[in-house]
Amino acid sequence: MSKIRIGIVGYGNIGRGVELAVERNEDMELVAVVTRRDPKSVQILTEGVKKVHFDDILTLKDEVDVMILCGGSATDLPVMGPEIAKHFNMIDSFDTHAKIPEYFADVDTAANEGKKVGIISVGWDPGMFSLNRIYAESILVQGSTYTFWGKGVSQGHSDAIRRIEGVKNAIQYTVPIEEAVERVRSGSEPELSTREKHLRECYVVAEEGADKALIEKTIKEMPNYFADYDTTVTFVSEEELKAEHSKMPHGGFVIRTGETGREGNKHVIEYSLKLDSNPEFTSSVLVAYARAAYRLANNGDCGAKTVFDIAPGLLSMKSAEQLRKEIL
Amino acid sequence: MSKIRIGIVGYGNIGRGVELAVERNEDMELVAVVTRRDPKSVQILTEGVKKVHFDDILTLKDEVDVMILCGGSATDLPVMGPEIAKHFNMIDSFDTHAKIPEYFADVDTAANEGKKVGIISVGWDPGMFSLNRIYAESILVQGSTYTFWGKGVSQGHSDAIRRIEGVKNAIQYTVPIEEAVERVRSGSEPELSTREKHLRECYVVAEEGADKALIEKTIKEMPNYFADYDTTVTFVSEEELKAEHSKMPHGGFVIRTGETGREGNKHVIEYSLKLDSNPEFTSSVLVAYARAAYRLANNGDCGAKTVFDIAPGLLSMKSAEQLRKEIL
After folding, report:
1. Which domains does chain A have, with CATH numbers?
2. Contact A328 B126 (CB under 8 A)
3. Which of A217, A301, B45, B293 could serve as A296's disulfide partner, Cβ 3.0–4.6 Å?
4. Is-contact B176 B149, C-beta < 8 A?
5. Which residues of chain A lie closer than 8 angstroms to B323, CB-CB?
6. Has residue A149 got a pLDDT over 80?
C-alpha cells in the first residue's frame, strides 16, 4: 500500500514535532518541508526530504497528499491557510479563538474552489479539549463545563515578560489551582473568577544591574496577561533557566458536571492531559487528522472542517472492522 | 421547528432513563413506548405517550423518527435489532463485545434494506470509553491503553450471586484498585493481572438458616466471575441492602500512556466518569446519538454505524456555526 505523503509548511517546534510524529506512523512518509527561509539553511532530521521555498510550493502539487501547516495563528495562518487550501489538502492548528469563524470561512471558500479538504484548529485546545467539551455537553445537557490549563509553559506570556526592559530571558508557567479543580470535581458547579482558576509562575533572568523590583512590579501589573492573576516572580540565572526550564511540558483538564433525571442524579466527566512535550503532542494530533483529511479527499469530500466534523474512525490506522472487533 | 420523535423499545431501567433524558433535550419528544408486556400494565412517567405492544410496532412507522432499543444484549437485541432496523432508524447499547462484528453485520443488512440508520453499541462502554480508546491510540501510536471500571454495580455479578442456594438478594461492586491506577498514570506501562486491576465487593442477604460460610466460599471460588479476583463478602440484612445499596452508581477510567519523538517524551491521556446513575447516564448518551441518527437519515445515509462513524458535531443541539464559535 502506498504511504500518505506529508508536507510540512514552517519548520519550528511544531514542524519538527510533525516530522517526528510521521516517523511513528507507518502508513505515512514525510516528502517535503516548505519554508520561507533559505531552504538550504534549514537543517531537518530526516534524510531524503525535499526542502522547498514557500514561493515554489506549487511544484509539490503532485507529490504531497496533505500539507501540515505549522506557522503561527497571528500572522502566518490567516494568509497561508486559504492560499494553501486552494491547492492542497491541509491541516493546521489555528488557535485564535475569536477569529475561528472568519478563518473557517476563508479556508472553506478556498478549499471548495480547489476541491481540497482543510481541517483547521487541530491540536489539543482547540482540538482534543474541544471534542471533550462537545461530547460532554451533548450528553449532560444541563451542567457546567470547566477548562483548566497547565501546569505548562505559555509562550505568549513568556514573550510578554521578555519584552520588559531589563529582562534578558523568561519562562512563564500557567498553573491550575488544585482547590478550584477539586471544587469543580465535587459537582457543585462553582462560579470561579480568573484568579481562582489559575496562577502564573514566572522565572526571569534579569540583565546585569536591572531594577528587579521594578521588573517584578511591571509583570504583576501587566493588564490582560498578569493583573487578574496571582503571579509569582522568581529571578534565576541564565544557566538555571536553561537547566530547569527548557522543556515544554503542558496539559490540563476539561471537566463537565451535570445532572440527569427528575431526582437530579449527578455525573462527572473528566478528560485530562499530562504532556512532556506540548509541540510533540500537538503534532501527533495533527498527523492523525492528516490521515482523516487524506481519506475524506479520496472519498470526494472537500471544504473546511474542524474536529467536530471528523468521524473518529477516520483517525485510526486500523480498518473499521478491526476497530469494531478490537477497541469498541 | 418540529421535534425529533423518539420511541422506546423495552421499558426497564434504561427505557426509563431514556424517557428522562428526552425530557432534558428540548428538540425531542417521546411519542411511544413499545413493550412485550401488556401495554396497559406498563406505568410510564410521561403523559400522552402511546403504549404499543411489540407485535404492533409497525403501526408506529410514520410516527417515530428514531427507536431507542432498551432491551438486553444477551437475547433481546440480537433478534430485535435487525428486525427494527429494517423499518426504523435505531440506537442500541449492544454490549456483548465478542459478538459485535456479527451483530453489526445483521443490523447493517437490515438497515440498508430499509434505508434506515442503526447506531449500535452506544453508551459509555462500549461508547464513550471506546471513543477515548480510539482517539488516544490514534494520537499516541506507541503506548498502552488501560480501562478500569467502577466503583460500580455489576448486574451480571449480582445476578450470579443471587443464583446461589441460600442467597435471598445481593449486590456486587466492581472496584478499581487505586495502586494499579497510579502505576498506569505514572507512564510505566505495567502488565497488570486481572487480580491487580479490580477487586469485587459483595453485599449478600442470606436466607434464614443458610450456611453463610458455604455461600462465601461458593462466591469466592466461582469461575470467571470471582475466582480470579480478590473478593470480599459482607452479609447484610434486606433492609440494609435496600437502604445502602439500592442506587446504581458506576464509572471508570480509560488511560493511555505513550511516547513521542526520538527522545521518548511521555504523555498521559486520561478520561474518567463518575456516575450517580449508570442507567440515566447511558440513556443520555443514547439520546445524543439518536439526534445523530436522525440527522444522518435525513441526509440520505443508511446502514449500521458505531460511535466511531459519527462526527461529534452531529450529537449537539447547536449548529455547526455555534459550535465553532462557542466551544471549539
Report:
1. 2-122+277-325 (3.40.50.720), 152-178+192-245 (3.30.360.10)
2. yes
3. A301
4. yes
5. 134, 306, 308
6. yes
